[in-house]
Design brief:
The protein is of the alpha+beta class and about 425 residues long. It is about 55% helix and about 10% strand. Strands 1, 2, 3, 4, 5, 6 and 7 form a seven-stranded antiparallel β-sheet that branches. Helix 4 packs across helix 10, helix 5 runs parallel beside helix 7 and helix 6 packs antiparallel against helix 7. The longest helix has about 40 residues.
Length: about 425
Amino acid sequence: MKKSIYSVAVALVAGLFVSCGVSAPKANLEGASKVDSLSYAIGVAQTQGLKNYLVARMGMDTIYMSQFVEGLLEATNADEKQNAYFAGTQIGQQVVNQIIPDVTMQILAGKGAELNKKNFTEAFIAGVTEKGLKMEPEQAQQTAMALMQAIQENNDSTADLTAQIDTFSYAMGLTQTQGLKDFVVNRMGVDTLYMSDFVKGLKEGIKVGENKKKGAFFTGIQIGQQVTTQIIPGVTRDVLGKNGELNKNNFMAGFVAGVTEKGLLMHPMEAQEVTMRLIEELKNERFEQEYGTNKAEGIAFLDSIAKTEGVVKTESGLCYKVITEGKGAVPTSTDRVKVHYRGTLIDGTEFDSSYKRNEPTTFGANQVISGWTEALTMMPVGSKWVLYIPQELAYGNRDMGQIKPFSTLIFEVELLEIVK
């Protein structure tokens, strides 16, 4: 009975062959910056698999591709008021195409009866707006559970069954709205000032039914909202950081070209390759700007440590100092080892310690950062070393929380045993 209605699958990726009559954004990649090129490439790349998703999962008829693209572009340029309306159409389509059919099939199959759509919709709207409720949400849950059992046990089509279904429809409609208001505000970006527009869209989405043309438009709206609220912000945050900005025009030009397979400036496979390459390059450039001092400080620190008595520097750049020389076997890279360790940054900040947990750690010698693997495969069991690991043998440009990109790390490592 409890199916979530709030998970809207994000269509991430290629291509339909139907012509599109909607004017789409145009991109010119001649002399384009890395960000502009990435914006277009990632737009194309994100359309791979979209045709199957639209047809098989969203029931869209590809004859109406122009309506899909129209909805897509309209959603990506929506203001707060329109966004609320479009969010309502999304939820409304899920109500009529997923929730009501699922409940009907699960509860009323074989009864020769249908859910009371009017009652369900009335309760759903009352629940999300928190106005005009005919029963409290907790009561609705209890009522829905009790009537579900009563309906399943009722073996005829009497007036009693009809009355049960009518009440059940209202209770179930109200039950399905638990958490929905928070979802539409926090996940769909709906401003509660425009809740009336959300409800208007909700009713419109429910009314669409078998109107495939309008359904395609609303499907475009749904994908467009995901592009605007999830995909573009997600890429911007992960690749360009808080001060970066993806070229939305280029992204949409690539996305529309990818889904219609018209006017493509690069093949989808090329788009994937360009995306991966530029993401790595742009991340490196951003991290160099934000955390380049970590790299410089690490190099200076290691140069100083390498001159310290007792410190050995290997060809890879790893530095280590033997505190206790063990007499046991030396692990291979494929061995599992048990160790105690303590990790700090070069300023002394401790970020991890098995000593504090009072519990040694066991792992494969090749399942850790390469600086550890190199050291472990030189250490006899019973040894305790201090490792000074340059960033390229540690986490490089990855942000690991306390360990920022390009951080040189220091570890006290005690090799207790090779685990057989």
